[in-house]
Amino acid sequence: xxxxxxxxxxxxxxxxxxxxxAHANNxxxxxxxxxxxxxxxxxxxxxxxxxxxxxxxNNPSNLYVGQKLVINIDVNYETPKDYFYxxxxxxDILWNIAQKYGTSVKRLVKLNNIKNSHDxxxxxxxxxxxxxxxxxxxxxxxxxxxxxxDILWNIAQEYNTTVKNLIELNDIKSSYDLYAGRNLLxxxxxxxxxxxxxxxxxxxxxxxxxxxxxxxxxxxxTKRFGIKISTxxxxxxxxxxxxxKAGETLVIxxxxxxxxxxxxxxxNKLNNHYRIMSNELLPDVEAFFDSSEEALRRINDLDNxxxxxxxxxxxxxxxxxxxxxxxxxxxxxxxxxxxxxxxxKSVTIRSILKANYLxxxxxxxxxxxxxxxxxxxxxxxxxVEYENGEPKNSWLS
Length: 397
Known about the structure:
Elements: H1 2-17, E1 26-30, H2 37-44, H3 48-55, E2 68-72, E3 83-87, H4 94-100, H5 105-112, E4 125-129, H6 130-137, E5 142-145, H7 152-158, H8 163-170, E6 183-186, E7 207-211, H9 218-225, H10 229-235, E8 249-253, H11 261-267, E9 273-275, H12 282-288, H13 293-299, E10 313-315, E11 326-330, E12 336-337, H14 338-345, H15 349-355, E13 364-365, E14 370-374, E15 384-387, E16 390-394
Antiparallel strand pairs: 1-2, 3-4, 5-6, 7-8, 9-10, 11-14, 12-13, 15-16
Helix pairs in contact: 4-5, 7-8
């Protein structure tokens, strides 16, 4: 009887220990099968970075079942858009940080669960209330929510900033800091010094033309592009999954994909159309833009013999340049010629024309127009300035 009592006592003790807070203001969360930091954060209402810092997690992707996480339960955390992170540096004190970001020491102490001076160590990331920051500095801030597949370079290109600016503004230290669902602060907008973006909000379907490679299967293609097999088959009039052949072009509906969030967002700001010129036929369009006449007919609802007419507006696929190294460029005040942009970026005029479905290298683009500037190796070139017929300066020398 005594032995049974001891066993019962030990069992109750073990159960109790699993829910006893690690500290007065903390609880212990036991990682379950399938858990990620993202869903734990969402379920408990505690920012991912706070969980990482409180538990000294080196690899956020390497949680294991049964792992015990210390979770602060007394802090009323704001939603992600209301804060950002600051890394404590040598010599920092809470008063100086509070003054810099327009908040109070009391606010920082509560938000970061600071108990004593030992909690303020160099390298620690503090949660800073961003709303108070923007009110204090009287600046305009935008927030961007990171999507699956996003990288800093793409985000910087879309919002006309640099990777360095994003890193500094959001105190990003490693790739683990860029997780899906995180809200990034974007650089301050100065309306007096920035041209507005081209007011394009395309409602057209977003297509990509994919050329089938050797050994490709329908299943692998649909998985690669994040679409359903039935969607691909219906759009391309395929009745047999074994029917596809190397070299043929498939139309991929990217707007129905669960991937390529960056490409879909940027595509809506670009001109994905081409206007037919005098005496031009579809084979001419196909040859210049390395496209597919059959696929172009399919997305424009043209039958096999229907001819295009001068001035007709054709829907084009997403520019292949978006899948390579590139820059999203906004034309400056007063407008710019394509050849000037090509010269300044040290790329060929033809590469810019093809990427933006244009044919005239002398085109002057209006201020605020958004274009793609390809930066891959095939687009690069060395421009040389001439004066009186003689080379004046090699821009790259």
